[in-house]
Structures are given as C-alpha cells and as structure tokens.
Design goal:
12 helices; elongated
C-alpha cells in the first residue's frame, strides 16, 4: 500500500533546496566572511565590535566569544543565521537599497543584496511546515540561488566554483537517507531561529525602554559589560536546595539583603537571580551607590537594582 509520506518530486524539490542552502550557500557566506575578516583577526574584530552585535543565543555566543567554553572561532562551525549576523555587523559591507533585513530590489546585485537573498531562501526552507515544494517554487528559488552564487564566484575570483556546485546538486540523485539528514539539520536550525527571534524581540523591547531610560548611555554600556561578566560566571552557578525560597523572597519583596560570610556566594546568588529577572523583561542596574536607585529608577519599566556590599564588609577579629 502506498504511503502518504512516500517520496515524490515535490518532496525531492524541498530537500534538494535544503541541500544547496546548507552546502554551497553556507560555504559561500563563510568565504565572504574570510575575505573581510581573515580567521586570525576574528577574535580581535569580535572584541572591537562586541557591543554592535545583537543579543546572541547561547550556542552562537559560545562559537564566537573567546571566553566561552565552546569557543572554536572556526567559520566551518557557523551556520547561515550566525554568518548573516556577523557579515551585517562586523564587516564594512554597506546595506542594500532596501536596508538589511528586508527583501532586496530584484535589480540590486550588490553584495549585501545577495547575502540577503541567501538568508531569505534559507528561511523559506527552514520555516516551511510543508515538506513539499512545487516545481514552480523550486525553479524560482533555484534561479535565485544560481544567479547569486555566480555573482559570489565573481567577487571571490574563484572561477565558477559555486556555480558548478549548484549545477551539480540540481541533478544529483537524492535518496531517503540524504533526505532525513537534511530535514534533521533544518529542524535544528528552525529551533535555533525560534530562540533567536525571541531574543531579538526581547532586545528590541529593551532598546525601546533604553531610549526613555534615565540611565546615561555611557553608564549603561559599562553596566552591560559588568552584566556580561556575570553571564560568564553564571555558567557554573549551581542552584542549591535553598534557592527556590530565596528566589521567592526576591520576587515578593521590594528589597532583599543577602547576608553571609565572605565567599559564601552572596554576590553569585544575587547576580543569578538578577539574570533570571532579566529573562522576564527586567532591566538590571548593577550600581555601587544606593543613591542611584532614586536617580536611575524608572517607574515605567521593571528594574532590578543589584548593589554589592551595600552596608560595607564586616568581620570579627579575635582579640588576645
């Protein structure tokens, strides 16, 4: 009996499109990044442009930030989503006529327009819930990819490397094992995209709040540097059995003081809780001066002030 899930030309079209996106298109963007940012300069370029980058997912942050545990700095480990972010934010490539993030003009053959087209085709493949792709859609997408890669070959001066790859995949046989592999890869990217979109929406909301924030921009930037350090340290934070009750008190009380001997984890716990609140839309204000609560307080937006050693550091000294 024939199955409704059996392979057919339309499913092959969808998987063939996925294959060219995950293969030549991704490698092409990696080569563009290598052109503008040679791999040996990557850590320094990221350091210089760190504040220009949008909020990254944990996976993306680990791949490009040297202090992260999963850091490789290898362009081969980066997918289209991350490559697009980097090409847009850390290179000198100018936006196309419609601006980054928008459909480019069909007549625009600029580098950024072609990068945008690869991103859009990739999203078409990743976000589609339909395992089928009509011949009309497939031919349109393939035509876009091919012309884009021809332009890319010319820019990279590598003969017709990617044009050949695209033509090869256009007619190369597909089999169920290959189909499953590329479907699984795209499912992973779809989940990563969902996380990225949520973080971008949170960032946009945060930026909108910052426009009206009473905190000066230069002060906010220093706070963000401090908070980024907290995130790195928080990776090894362990929630003990008492954490839920501490979190409950922090959530239900307007002011909470952590008391304990030096090294008992007061600051680490406070930072961990503040980061949890940030995920819920709170703005973290890690000031060292309690008077700043009144000065930087924003009644229109939720905030969490974190003040280390608010009443100083005390200890007992044994007298002989």
């Amino acid at each position: 009996m024939a199955s409704s899930y059996a392979s057919m030309p339309e499913t092959t079209n969808a998987n063939r499109a996925c294959r060219v996106v995950l293969g030549p298109c991704t490698d092409g963007l990696r080569d563009i990044l290598r052109h503008y940012v040679p791999p040996h300069t990557f850590p320094n370029v990221i350091k210089q442009n760190k504040l220009n980058l949008p909020r990254l997912t944990a996976v993306q942050r680990d791949l490009i930030l040297p202090k992260s545990g999963g850091y490789t700095g290898r362009y081969e480990d980066m997918d289209i989503s991350l490559l697009y972010i980097l090409l847009r934010n850390i290179t000198s490539i100018s936006p196309h006529s419609k601006g980054w993030g928008n459909d480019p003009d069909p007549c625009d053959m600029s580098r950024s327009a072609n990068i945008e087209r690869i991103r859009l085709v990739r999203n078409r493949c990743v976000h589609s819930c339909d395992p089928f792709m009509s011949n009309t859609d497939f031919n349109s997408i393939w035509s876009t990819i091919r012309s884009t890669m021809v332009d890319l070959d010319a820019f990279l001066v590598n003969g017709n490397k990617y044009e050949k790859s695209v033509d090869f995949l256009r007619h190369e046989s597909m089999d169920p094992e290959n189909d499953l592999h590329y479907e699984e890869e795209l499912r992973k990217q779809e989940q990563e995209d969902k996380t990225t979109r949520e973080m971008v929406n949170n960032l946009e909301n945060k930026l909108e709040k910052l426009k009206m924030s009473p905190i000066p921009q230069n002060v906010r930037e220093q706070y963000d540097i401090d908070i980024e350090k907290w995130r790195e340290e928080d990776k090894v934070y362990y929630e003990t059995h008492s954490y839920p009750s501490v979190m409950e008190k922090a959530r239900n009380q307007p002011c909470v003081t952590f008391v304990g001997v030096p090294g008992s984890g007061k600051s680490a716990t406070a930072h961990h809780i503040a980061l949890k609140f940030e995920e819920e839309g709170y703005e973290i204000v890690p000031t060292k001066d309690i008077k700043k609560i009144e000065e930087y307080g924003d009644p229109k937006n939720p905030q969490v002030f974190v003040i280390d050693d608010v009443v100083g550091v005390f200890g007992l000294k044994k007298l002989n």
